[in-house]
Amino acid sequence: MEKVDFGWFDVDNDDRQKIEEGIWVPCRLCQKAFRRVRLTLRYCAECKTAFCEGEHGSFAQKRGVCVQCGPKAATK
Predict the structure, then answer these.
(1) DSSP letter at 7?
(2) What residues contact residue 20 under an 8 Å CB cut-off, 6+ apart?
(3) Is residue 71 in some structural domain?
(4) CA 52, CA 57: separation in Å to the nearest integer?
(5) Looking at the domain assignment, is residue 59 inside a domain?
(6) 75 within domain boundaries
(7) Torsion sign (Cα): 64, 37, 17, 14
(8) CB 26 within 8 A of CB 39
């Protein structure tokens, strides 16, 4: 049986820690914006929150960058 944590994001026990222990967590963007649970084993290297594969970030293995932290706006 897979380990799953359906709780909200906890700054004291971030998604990176959980995912690296093999615990599935909800995509935090889906959880906030759509109030839906979509489990993932991917996390953002910058903010340490979980995100959906492909839709809410890009990744390499378990770590990547979510759309909130992703490519910054071009500067003049």
Answers:
(1) S
(2) 62
(3) no
(4) 7
(5) yes
(6) no
(7) positive
(8) yes
